[in-house]
Amino acid sequence: MTKGVEGWSTSFRAGQFIPAVEYIRANRVRALLMQDMEELMAKVDLYVGGDDLVVTNLTGHPTVVLPDGTRKAGKTEMPGSLTFTGRLYGEADLLAVAHAYQQATGAHLRRPAMEKLLKKG
Predict the structure, then answer these.
(1) Alpha-carbon distance 108 to 102, whole Å?
(2) pTM for this model (two decimals)
């Protein structure tokens, strides 16, 4: 058994000891978050940016993450990404915008230069 699997099994075992009252309370907070997110998303077609995967995992809003060039991290170029979040059940519109973005930028086709790594080997 790998360490990662052991971590998950420990987490699942700990979940058995969460009182029902706490579980119900967490679901009520989740319902409030879902309502707030729905009100926010009613004002926009989609949200660009952010690292909201925890929120969208709780609310069910579709999110797509796309490659978006590189970012400097000191002397190193790191791959960058861009996040689009859409309305509930708005996957088709969200994916259409993501596809249009990819076609316009071509960022998904860029690859890091491998020459330096190949010369070392």
Answers:
(1) 6
(2) 0.69
